[in-house]
Amino acid sequence: MFDELRDLYQEVIFDHNRNPRNFRVIENADRKVEGFNPLCGDRLTLFLQMDGDRITDASFQGSGCAISTASVSLMTEIVKGKTEQEAEELFKKFHEMTTGKDEQINLEAVGKLAVLAGVREYPARVKCATLAWHTLDAALKNEQKSISTE
Amino acid sequence: QKPQAVIDSIVHLYSHDYANVHRGVHTLSVRSTDRFEGARTKVKDFINAASEKEIIFVRGATEAINLVAQSYGKSNIKAGDEILITAMEHHSNIVPWQIFCQQTGAVLKVAPINLQGELIYDEFEKLLSDKTRLVSVVHMSNALGTINPVKKMIAAAHAKGIPVLLDGAQAIPHMTVDMQDLDCDFYAFSGHKLYAPTGIGVLYGKQALLEAMPPYQGGGDMIRKVTFAETEYNVLPYRFEAGTPAIAEVVGLGVAIDYLNTIGMDKIAAYEADLLDYATEKARQIKGLRIIGEAKQKGAILSFVLDKIHPHDIGTMLDSLGIAVRAGHHCAMPVMDFFKVPATARASFAMYNTKEEIDVLMNGIESLIEVFG
Description:
The structure holds two protein chains of two kinds. Chain A has helices at 11-18, 66-79, 84-99, 107-110, 126-140; strands at 31-37, 42-51, 54-63. By secondary structure, chain A is an alpha+beta fold. Chain A has a three-stranded antiparallel beta sheet with strand order 1-2-3, with helices on one face. In chain A, strand 1 and strand 2 form a beta hairpin. In chain A, helix 1 crosses helix 2 (66-79), helix 2 (66-79) runs parallel beside helix 5 (126-140) and helix 3 (84-99) runs antiparallel to helix 5 (126-140). The radius of gyration of chain A is 14 Å and the shape is globular. Chain B has 13 helices and 13 strands. Chain B has helices at residues 4-17, 27-47, 61-76, 95-104, 121-126, 150-159, 179-182, 207-212, 247-263, 265-284, 311-319, 333-338, 355-372, and strands at 55-58, 82-86, 107-111, 132-138, 164-167, 186-190, 201-205, 223-226, 231-233, 289-292, 301-306, 326-328, 344-348. The longest helix of chain B has 21 residues, at 27-47. The relative contact order of chain B is 0.14.
């Protein structure tokens, strides 16, 4: 059963959903932004610790569907140690990958995030995958308002 | 998808009988008007209203409620007055009242529900105060399936001189709905749940109430005479039907009602009750599944959550098996908040579903629990 969903619900997704990485609070975080999709119920709080323009630590709290949880978990792993600019670059590539603007997706450029490439075939779920990244974008730009991808 | 007869009636209208209604003297206009007004009579008979004057065509239950809020409300409900709804309402029976209260200074009161998703009747009764000017409640909850004891509620409200509006969008496709028997003052429903087209619905109102209400929208058809000095409004029901109506949609609604009448609403209700029992029995055996909404009086709706699996994931996975459930807040966010869930997955059964399909649903749920394990 569910064979055709294999390209969306890959084992890595299940793994990150069951055991989300960096699922904790950062006390006195440099950046703290909320992401919330009220229509579907995904919500997260993203914490970032910065050293100059470099992200030294990233974590999150919140709850949501498997896609959104896996996406934020993978994101916090991959952005640690990156500069703001590098993180923004990844955001752009992730956005292109999931919204299908680029016919030829360069999966190598996004590394482990490639597991979420399948979401572009499920337009109703794209916002679940991108919520984490839009929230990161707001955090990096030091915006205070709550973010939504709906 | 929609019954073939409904689809055919729309195609037929647009191919052979189409013209604007009420306005023309030519053959096609007469044919079109006959079909349109014929459908109004079908609706009147379907809900056992006293007269066609009490059947107003609107876009759906949502517009019907907005119409009552703005027209009946503005002329009868003032600052400090109260409007009573329940905690299980659909947004369409919450937001129009919130907007109205903001505009007028009236106060919105909410009767509570219990963990089975039932109205706490005693608390409802206590909230019928001498300031209450309208009770507006759902007949059958779309999120929980709960059927409210509306006759009892209407009797209690009427004893205090308070009129009652029922939101019948979920109820009307699944049970016999009789305006004389219920004695409600307003009844709102949509065509789309009734196997009819979207974009059409009905507001039923007791004639005496409608006669006293000011127009909702101005324009053609709802007038008798227009001059720049003054304008005279039309009689019921046209006074509340401004502009060219959704003619084909109305015709489609009439045909959908014909279709249901050939089966019989009581038969449908009994069949669906059986489906609900079967599905509930199976659902109760699935470990990790929690049913949301277990009222003793319930329509054929099974709203549920799974441990640690978000309704959106449930929805996507069941979709891959060819099963369409609604996953989300069902336009009833306060209900979700009450049960402390972000959303539920909802299987809504209808007369075309079978026990075999329920088996596929339950097997699918069990499999996806395993896969997420």
